[in-house]
Amino acid sequence: MKKKKIGLVILVLVLLYSIGGIYYNITHRDSVDNSVKSIDKIDKYGYVLKSNATNLQKELFNELKTILNNDNINDDAYAKTVSKMFVTDLYTLSNKVNKYDVGGTEYVLESGRDNFKVNVQDTLYKYLEDNSDGKRSQILPMVVNVSADEISDTKYKIGDNESDAKKVSLTLSYNEDLGYDTKVTLILIKSDSKYYVVESAS
Questions:
Q1: Which structural domain, as residue segments, surrounds residue 95?
Q2: How confident is the model at residue 6 (pLDDT cuts 50, 70, 90)?
Q3: In angstroms, rounded to a whole number, what is the distance separating the alpha carbons of residues 194 and 75?
Q4: pLDDT digits (tens, 9 = 90+) for 57-110
Q5: DSSP the chain
Q6: Per DSSP, what are the bridge partners of residue 164?
Q7: What is the pLDDT of residues 188-201, one digit of tens each?
Q8: Which residues pair with 67 in a beta bridge?
Q9: What's the CA gap between 94 and 142, in Å, rounded?
């Protein structure tokens, strides 16, 4: 009698595992690995190149790496390249997983990042469909070219503190015209030897 009970328990367990395995295969066979990994880094400054970067983003990252590896860093070249990287990441929606995957965040001054993300989620990324399953069919912009047309020295005030700043005017072009901004002006300040975006206007 005990042997029959043990045999029955084993049979039930085998059936449960089989059903669980079938369910897992059905629910996960079409799943897509949307995890974004770091594939390159500029250690001293903490800039990271992600695995979902476009060709333009890779080019700009290498451009920045060259600038920062120089013993005498050209401030204008540095600020212009960070500006180009910021707008390219922000306005390239095609490689974002969802509206919370806000591009350009790492180039924004830390004290303003939360407000920046909320603002972008409520405006530019508001209608961005989720792509966690890899099946999104929404037509989205990808920046394919960006130029820093003009750079000038200026001042920028945060609270009672006024800092030296750079004003950079940029022109963007996309893989196709979907009505997104093509002219953007940024203000950047330097903090701990890094340039950060503190203001953006289009």
A1: 38-201
A2: low
A3: 10
A4: 999 999 999 999 999 999 999 999 999 999 999 999 999 999 999 999 999 999
A5: -HHHHHHHHHHHHHHHHHHHHHHHHHHHTT-------EEEEETTTTEEEETT--HHHHHHHHHHHHHHTSSS--HHHHHHHHHHHHHHHHH--TT-SSTTS-TTGGGB-GGGHHHHHHHHHHTTTTTPPP-TTS--------EEEEEEEEEEEEEEEETTEEEEEEEEEEEEEESS-SS---EEEEEEEEETTEEEEEEEE-
A6: 155
A7: 999 999 999 999 99
A8: none
A9: 6
Is the sign of the CA dihedral 60, 62, 68, 71 positive or negative? negative
Burial class (CB in 10 A: 0-12, 13-18, 19+), 198: buried
Domain-embedded: residue 31: no
Residue 62 DSSP SS3:
helix
Residue 131 falls within a domain, yes or no? yes
Cβ-contact 82, 51 below 8 angstroms: no
30 in any annotated domain = no
The rounded distance, in Å, linking the Cα atoms of 116 and 127 is 17
Residue 35's alpha-carbon distances to 17, 89, 169, in angstroms, are 28, 17, 33
Question: Could you give the number of structural domains in the chain?
Answer: 1
The CATH number linked to 127 is: 3.10.450.50
Q: Are 155 and 162 in contact (CB under 8 A)?
A: yes
* Helix/strand/coil for 22: helix
Residue 1 in any domain: the answer is no
